[in-house]
Design brief:
Layout (H helix, E strand, L loop, with lengths): L9 H6 L6 E10 L2 E11 L4 E5 L6 H8 L6 E6 L2 E2 L5 H7 E4 L11 H6 L14 H13 L15 H14 L4 E5 L7 H18 L2 E5 L3 H7 L2 E6 L2 E6 L1 H4 L2 H8 L3 E6 L2 E6 L7 H4 L4
Parallel strand pairs: 3-8, 3-9, 6-7, 7-8
Antiparallel strand pairs: 1-2, 1-4, 4-5, 9-10, 11-12
Bound molecules: adenosine-5'-triphosphate (ATP).
The site of adenosine-5'-triphosphate has 12 residues, from strand 2 and helix 2.
Keywords: ATP-binding, Nucleotide-binding, Translocase, Transport
Protein name: ABC transporter ATP-binding protein
Pfam family, one: ABC_tran
């Protein structure tokens, strides 16, 4: 598997610095006649884990899709120092892999064949997979403890097992930037931790960069180096989890009544029943 350093631009190789994995400036996206992203700036350093949070409809998935080149956006987006617009489809697929919120599962497809699809950018057009593609697929299945499922239809796996297969396909792609849209969606708390620990381990082992969206705020804050709070298609806060997961910001942008307490690995967000907007009077945080 290639490392983040392999994706350096020529100038970066010469200067010895690593270009940021993502530099997005003034990104605007309109869908169905409505402005969904309205001037978003986002930088993700190589090797960093950044999680985008925000209320339903804030534009999180849209931002992820724009970064992944899956929909047209104005403004500028660079991946590892190369303008996104200059990356062809196959070239982009070797740099960035997206795990969608609900990936389409081809009917009856076996786990092995699904993960092998991740090797498509390395196969000649209309050509067959090589021995190297098959070996890479076996290696990823083994790495993610999925070998025993190789011949099973993907549709028969549990939610947690399936999530691991989606990650496996992204890893087989050999991309160093992982875009994860709600990777813990529909997983129980144990499987949420298992999947995020796995992503973090892979990040360290393979020098990956992670840009994710998540709704589970406490667990999101435990894994992210930085968080970006999106609301109404704009970035309204960004920084380390402690700077973003505050009672004030969550009350303002989620209309949520929460208490935020210090945890060993980041702030813990506890929902508190009661009228929105009265947390400072009835539920002091400090
Ligand atoms: N093709 C489309 N046409 C029109 N509007 C769209 C289209 N796709 C998305 N939208 C709208 O864009 C807004 C942002 O959607 P997006 O999926 O990015 O939000 P999100 O923050 O990921 O939400 P959630 O937390 O609910 O997953 C929503 O209001 C959605 O209805």
């Amino acid at each position: 598997m290639s490392s983040g350093a392999d994706k350096r631009s020529g100038a970066d190789k010469r200067s010895g610095t690593v270009a940021p994995a993502v530099v997005a400036a003034d990104v605007r996206v309109s869908l169905g006649g409505a402005r969904i992203l309205d001037g978003v700036d986002l930088t993700v350093a190589a090797g960093e884990w950044v999680t985008i949070i925000g209320p339903n409809g804030a534009g999180k998935s849209t931002l992820l899709r724009a970064v992944g080149g899956l929909l047209p956006a104005s403004g500028s987006i660079s991946l590892f120092g190369t303008p996104s617009a200059k990356l062809g489809r196959r070239e982009r697929a070797r740099v960035v892999a997206t795990v969608a919120q609900s990936p389409v599962i081809p009917n009856g497809m076996a786990v092995f064949d699904y993960v092998l699809l991740g090797r498509t950018p390395y196969m000649p057009p209309l050509g067959r997979e090589s021995a190297a593609d098959l070996a890479a697929t076996r290696e990823v299945l083994d790495r993610l403890d999925l070998t025993r499922f190789a011949d099973r239809a993907l549709s028969t796996l549990s939610g947690g097992e399936r999530q691991r297969v989606f990650l496996a396909r992204a890893l087989a792609q050999g991309a160093t930037l992982l875009l994860l849209d709600e990777p813990t969606n529909a997983l129980d708390i144990g499987h949420q931790q298992e999947v995020l620990e796995l992503v973090d381990q892979l990040r360290h082992d393979h020098g990956l960069t992670v840009l994710a969206t998540m709704h589970e705020l406490s667990i999101a804050g435990e894994y992210a180096d930085r968080m970006v709070l999106l609301a109404g298609g704009r970035v309204v806060a960004a920084g380390p989890p402690r700077a973003v997961l505050t009672e004030e910001l969550l009350a303002t942008h989620y209309r949520a009544r929460v208490r935020v307490v210090d945890g060993a690995h980041g702030p813990l967000v506890v929902p508190v029943r009661g009228p929105v907007g009265q947390q400072s009077r009835e539920c002091p945080s400090r």
